[in-house]
Write a structure and sequence with these properties.
- There is one protein chain.
- With 447 residues, the protein is α/β, with parallel strands linked by helices.
- The protein has helices spanning 3-19, 33-42, 54-61, 72-81, 116-128, 145-155, 195-206, 218-248, 253-260, 284-294, 300-326, 354-364, 396-400, 416-419; strands at residues 23-27, 46-50, 84-87, 98-101, 134-137, 166-169, 188-192, 212-215, 335-339, 368-372, 404-407, 426-428, 444-446.
- The strands form two sheets. It has an eight-stranded mixed β-sheet with strand order 3-2-1-4-5-6-7-8, sandwiched between helices. The protein has a five-stranded parallel β-sheet with strand order 10-9-11-12-13, with helices on one face.
- It is 40% helix and 12% strand.
- The chain has two domains: 3-216, NAD(P)-binding Rossmann-like Domain (Rossmann fold), CATH 3.40.50; 232-446, NAD(P)-binding Rossmann-like Domain (Rossmann fold, 3-Layer(aba) Sandwich), CATH 3.40.50.
Amino acid sequence: MSSASVSNYATNLLSSIESKTAKVGVVGLGYVGLPLVELFARKGFHVKGFDIDSRKIDDLSAGRSYIGHITSDRIASLVESGRFEATTDFSRMKEVDAIIICVPTPLGTHREPDLGPVIHTGKAIGKYLRKGQLVILESTTYPGTTRDVLRPELEASGLKAGEDFLLAYSPEREDPGNPNFSAANIPKVVGGFTADSARVAQALYGAVTPQVVPATSCEVAEACKILENTYRAVNIALVNELKIVFDRMGIDVWEVIDAAKTKPFGFQAFYPGPGLGGHCIPIDPFYLTWVARAYGVHTRFIELAGEINTSMPHYVIERLTEALNSRGKAIHGSKILVMGAAYKPNVDDCRESPSMELIEMLQERGGVVTYNDPHVPRLPKMRAHDIGLESQDLTPGMLKAQDCVLVATDHAAYDWPNLLPNISLLVDTRGATRMCRDRFADRIVTA
């Protein structure tokens, strides 16, 4: 294939992007893929969504949303517009011009990268890949994945990246439930396997986002995402450790952070909690430590942060045990209500939520555990957890019947001044009840 032919593919695709006649395919219709579908469709592109979960396809085709912060009305309007169609039929990949991969990249049982979803998706695309298509990976992963893991699966088709099809990487930057930032206004970092790949991928995102940040390679773009999330994980580990130290000293870590963040330079506020949650921060640093070992480098600083963050649920259980013991009770046989199942406030996302581990640890110790979450009516089955509990209503009688209430997620819906009079003992991992602490000091324990 001549370089002129490659440039022709790029020129043709650039032209169709500019005219918005390019058809976009999004693989993986979860918290990353579905907002991306909506973004491209709202901007005038025709989008096909691909997923192996037929229930998601049925819901979307009927105009129903399964993600809390994306309403069904929005999905219904996309379907009615004729610019969006969802399918499990991967043979229809041939119908689109650009394919964006938004599948999970979890950890294995030994905290090693599990790139199975990326590999399986690459194989599925490879079966139907045609000349001139653009493939972009958005799933968070370690540097080198696009080139060394995804590319061979695509090239099993007999087509060559950079010659017959275009290949790029652009890290997702979704923050579910954040009202200030969405796919429509977050800058997109884009790195290409070749110059033509980069040029076309940047043009595609440039048609729907306000700013595209070019990276010189796929590896730079992959490393960018790892840096962003490792930065957060390390700083959260710092405040988690400080929470333990300051608690022993009788100092309120949340008050310390509030005071420190008044400094207009050189400080960014991070907040402690019962552990890390979400699809990125608990996972991505381990992707980096794993690949670093392949280069003979030991990332001791990052690994220490990981140890601190993963130990936080155990610290919470220790504090809860001490609190119950002070009342002459043990976890075994005690009624314990966990408030909040989602990994962060005001969303329905339970991925990697420390609440799951806390519930299981309490159950293992003989606790009679219930939970409440206004955004999560039933605990979903996940790779490492299948608890199956349903959210209980916060009635005065239900709260009074609990031996202990554990605050794992500080949802805005929780009205603490009205809830606390019915609670005899509360363990707060989020600083959610700070404003009520003076009034209810006899029943609030921080953890």
